[in-house]
Specification:
Layout: H1 14-58, E1 65-72, E2 75-79, E3 89-94, E4 100-110, E5 115-123, E6 128-136, H2 151-154, E7 160-161, E8 176-178, E9 188-190, H3 196-219, H4 221-230
């Protein structure tokens, strides 16, 4: 007697597979969104704390207080110190006598792996960028992360020329990064050998930030100088 043919299980329909995959994708998406919303306030608070600490690292030691301004349409508006920074805030530092002693600004650009973000010090009287702190970087250890440790690179910021032109509409000279060992002008950044991509990112971000902020700071310098006194009771 011949054996009966084996029963082949029926394959699920394409529609059924699509529905199940869609359900899994929907649940996964909802879980990701829930985790993001749950952690968003904590991430924002951590960023605020890190920024607050960085501010007093780049502002002059004589700065005992600060005010925060938003730049919009070349106009400065005083905002609360905990205002989220969307790339449009100016941090002004003042000494005990309410004198303006320095300004801190953020800048960001695409590096080798991800966006590099820094907080830098700008002296509106000497028109120099004098220091910076890295707020965010995932650059390759030993190469791209040298922007915060390489002594020859950091010498660029003893006084990086970032002055504005006569009509206060733009930087007098575009800030740019040049090949290591070829710097000739005070507005140029001598790159780190072996980390040119990250070095170039620093030049691009400082030029973009300088073109945006520095003319407005020059135009509103009197406001910045007197803002601390005007807020006193």
């Amino acid at each position: 007697m011949s054996n009966p043919d084996p029963q082949i299980p029926q394959l699920p329909s394409s529609l059924s597979l699509i529905q199940k995959l869609g359900a899994v994708a929907l649940i996964s998406g909802l879980l990701v969104a829930m985790v993001y919303e749950y952690t968003k306030p904590m991430i924002a608070d951590n960023q605020r704390v890190a920024l607050e600490a960085a501010l007093y690292n780049v502002l002059p030691a004589s700065a005992s207080s600060r005010l925060t301004f938003r730049l919009e349409d070349d106009q400065l508006t005083l905002v609360p110190d905990d205002t989220p920074n969307e790339g449009d805030l100016i941090y002004a530092g003042y000494d005990n006598e309410h004198k303006l002693v320095g300004i801190a600004l953020t800048a960001a650009a695409q590096g080798y792996q991800d966006t590099v973000k820094i907080l830098y010090a700008y002296d509106p009287y000497s028109s120099c960028i004098k220091d910076f702190v890295v707020l965010k970087s995932t650059e390759t250890p030993g190469f791209g992360d040298k922007i915060a440790t390489d002594e020859s690179f950091l010498k660029n910021f003893e006084c990086l020329d970032a002055k504005v032109n006569e009509d206060q509409s733009a930087l007098a000279h575009a800030i740019k990064t040049v090949r290591h060992g070829t710097k000739k002008n005070p507005w140029e950044i001598d790159a780190i050998a072996g980390a040119t991509i990250t070095s170039n990112a620093v030049g691009r971000m400082l030029d973009k930030s300088g073109q945006f902020f520095h003319p407005a700071i020059a135009q509103n310098l009197n406001l910045l100088e007197n803002a601390q006194r005007s807020t006193q009771p």
